[in-house]
Amino acid sequence: MNSATLSSANRAESPLASAFRQALPIILGYVPVGFAYGVLAQKSGLSGFNTMLMSVLVFAGSAQLIAVGLFAAAANPLAIVATTFVVNLRHLLMSAALAPFLRAWGKTRLALFAYQLTDETFALHANRFAKDETGAAETFGINVIAQSAWVGGTALGLAASTLITDIRPIGLDYALPAMFIALLLGQLKSRLHLAVSLAAGLLSTGLMLAGLGQSHVLAATIIAATIGLGAHAWTSRRSS
Is the pLDDT of residue 74 over 90? Predict the structure, then answer.
C-alpha cells in the first residue's frame, strides 16, 4: 500500500475509530492496573461505591493507589488529601506544556480536558498536538476511552476481589511500566530522544540502588531532561 492510499485511509477513519486506535496501549495498561486498584481498595476496607467514585472523580492511578494504602493504614483524612494533592502536582506542568496548543478552546472545554488528563494521555496528546492534531472529537474520544478503561478495570477488580488474595503472582504490577514503554516508543523521534530516555532509565536505576527512595524517578527525569536540553541547544548552535 503506497503513501497516498495510507493517507486516504487515515482521512476515511472516523474520529472515534482513530481515538480508539491511538488509545489502545493505554487501554491495555489501564484495565489490569485498574483491576489491581479495585482489588486493593476492597481489601483495604473501602466501600465499593467509594472505590468506583474515586476512579470517576479522581482518575489518577498513582494517587488512588497511594490513597488506598494510606486508608488501609488508618491515616488521617487530611494526610490522605494532602499526599494525593502533592502527588498530582505534576499535572500543573503537564497542563502548562499543552496549553499553547489549545488557545482557541473555551474555558468549559479546557476544564473538561484537564479533568481527564493523565500521564498516559498527556504523552499521547503531546505527540498529537505537535503535529497540529487538536480536533476536539478525537481528543475527547481518547480521554473518554482511557477513563472508561480505568473505571471498567476498577469494576472488574471489585467483582473479583473476593476470589483474589494477592495480585503479585498474576503480574499485574508490570502492566503500568509496560504501558509507559509502549507510549515512549511512539515519541522517540531522534537519537537524542533515545539517548535521553536510556540515560533517565539507567540513572533512575542507579539512584534507586543507591537508596534515594521514591524520588529517584523524578530526580533522574529532571537530570536527564536537563542534559538533553543542553545537548539540543549545543547542537542547534553548531548547526546554525
Answer: no
Q: pLDDT band at 3, cuts 50/70/90?
A: very low
Q: Tell me if 7 is assigned to some domain.
A: no
> Does residue 221 sit in the same domain as residue 204?
yes
C-alpha 121/C-alpha 100 separation (Å) is 17
Distance CA(101)–CA(99), nearest Å, equals 5
In this structure, is residue 6 part of a structural domain?
A: no
Evaluate if pTM is beyond 0.85.
Answer: no
Q: Give yes or no: residues 166 and 231 share one domain.
A: no
Tens-digit pLDDT profile for residues 188-212: 778 888 898 899 889 989 988 988 7
Q: Provide the residue range defining the domain that includes 112.
A: 16-187
Task: For residue range 128-142, list pLDDT tens digits in order.
Answer: 999 999 999 999 999
